[in-house]
Amino acid sequence: MNLPLSLNVLVFAALLLGIAQTDRTTWSLAKKVLFALVLGVLFGSALHAIYGTGDATLKATFGWLDLVGNGYVQLLQMIVMPLIFASILSAVTRLHNASSLGKISFLTIGTLLFTTMIAALIGIGLTNLFGLTAEGLVAGTQELARMQTIQSDYAGKVADLNIPQLLLSFVPQNPVADLARAKPTSIISVVIFAAFLGVAALQLLKDDVEKGTRVINAIDTLQAWVMRLVRLVMKLTPYGVLALMTKVVASSNLDDILKLGSFVAVSYMGLALMFGVHGLLLALAGINPLRYVRKVWPVLTFAFTSRSSAASIPLSIEAQTRRLGTPQSIASFAASFGATIGQNGCAGLYPAMLAVMVAPTVGINPLDPLWIATLVAIVTLSSAGVAGVGGGATFAALIVLPAMGLPVSLVALLISVEPLIDMGRTALNVSGSMTAGSITSQLLGQTDKALLEADEHGELAHA
User: Quick count: other Cβ atoms within 10 Å of Cβ 207?
Assistant: First the structure.
């Protein structure tokens, strides 16, 4: 190991130790993650200033950063399936009334899909308004490598599916294989399998109280066990964020970011408008949007910095039940489904914007009303089953673009700005799930008004 590399690794280790010292403070997890984000930006900027891009020492440094950053991402991927399976199973069995499941499912999923449809319309409108297009974008070495990965990992599995085939792929055939993520749509298959198991547990409880009670207790134990596993992994989030942000900043090409700056700016404009839509829907349901934002801010901060909808599920449930007055059953249902269905940012706004940008390059008029209606319908339907940990937006785009007869090359061309946009998209996804839970609770008259209207200022997630 040469001297510059050794110094880089020592500085990185010192920063990790510095983050470890925050355990002695009263900081919430969200504050620790934000602190790590700032450290990562500063360290990454220093590396970029010293080495530029493509330096051999910098690439060797990335190997050590990946040990922590990619290790953290793999741990997140490890917990996704157990977390969603246990959360959905627990949410269904907490209802103790199969008829309630139908109402909650309809309202929650309906709200998620409705807001995704609005996100798609906003994405289409803004992209047309500002004249964003894929024409003139050139693929470099990094983009070509990304394109090869996409073709091998995604395109062959999802790009050739039509909408009926896509919907059929959601139906579980081999739950064990789905738990092992054997196919791109495995997450929604696990959700459906868990929901069926939950309904079966409720029916068993009616038929045989003793056996049914044992099953319900076992499910509660499983959920508590998995949640404890998730919180163990969540404690590592600041370390993962430090490594990931350092690499993103150190490897960023400022020219590429500036070239795609208009796309980043319009994306965040769309995200801001969608947060406004959430606020409007909450206001119509009788919830003060400003009070809502204050109470869920730590969750949104965590989602923004971690870029993981799935890892935010426990914080989302906690915020809904302890601060927004939403019952545990509805909160668990909304948080779990919101990580897999109707992600407003990743599955709504993003693929719609890409489709409008690509359309002119193949001779399609992106202002054609029929084309827009078709795009909105496909975006909304395909928003089910998008993975809650990294790559979800790519997966959504690779379903939508081929379904609209469009090439998928633009997905690779945006690699340099993906992390910048993904933070905002993830925060919007999580806000959408909490909005759906709050609205469902309000419409069913199950919200604890006293808890919702209380102005206490506690911090969430001392994981």
Answer: 8
